Amino acid sequence: MDAVNRRIINAFQGGFPIAERPYAEAAMRVGIEEDELIERIGDMLDAGTLTRFGPLYNAEAMGGALTLAALAVPAERYDEVAEIVNAFPEVAHNYERVHALNMWFVIATDDPARKATVLAEIEAKTGLTVYDMPKEEEFFIGLHFNL
Amino acid sequence: MTAQPNRTEPPVDAMDRRIIEATQEGLPLTPRPYHELAVELGLTPDDVMARMRAMLERGVIRRISVVPNHYALGFEANGMSVWDVPDERAHELGHEIGTLDFVSHCYRRPRHLPLWPYNLFAMVHGRAREEVERKVARIAEILGAADRGHEVLYSTRILKKTGLRLSA
Hints:
Chain A is α+β, with helices and mostly antiparallel strands and about 150 residues long. Chain A has 5 helices and 6 strands; from the N terminus they run H-H-H-E-E-H-E-E-H-E-E.
């Protein structure tokens, strides 16, 4: 990654302007032109360096629901269970982790009733116990990679 | 004008939902992205920008930003550190751990005894596991005797990462 992309990532993890020509404004902050910023963001998305660019929505503030849940999946059933879990559009993220509880997924839905339904359906379809771990309190979130 | 919380109004109305739907894949990569959304939605650009600013204020939009893939950036070790701390101290300790610059997310969550005794989660990223381990050791040092047990769960695969999708 070159110095300019590094500056773009450092500068815009925390926020991006809402303005008539936001890329022009933002580009000035990293010392490049509007069209170059647009092209670089597009290229980083294509290359997978960025997973997303745009508004990040908060399911709970929308009146929806969010939770983190875990499963203890037998090794020989891992791919099959991952397919069942991932098939739900409400499953926003799913990670394999090294632990007896080896599959961790986030459910995000704008329809709060869907959370319990999806968890119950995952239990029914997999035959496994779902450990629901909704956040009880959220502390300061930094998430800032300093490159 | 100050927005008053109104419990009878849903936090997002039908037009907000259309804006959310139109930006689920991201912000258009054109010089006037909010104008492009406005044309698509039959609004004025000022309406789109005002609604998005209002959603930012209400926290419906957390932020508008680039989301780096931490693996692609070389932060290949991603450890979910989980801690069993006394419930009565979880609030205070969560605050302290959450403000560490190497902790990206910090939450209090329910235990599931006996399998899962942990009530504090702190996500730690590093270029390698040793770096994560050093950072976890720093957390343990801060917690002191309040650390009644902890583990670090490393992620070995992203099985899915799409973000919120609106229901039909």
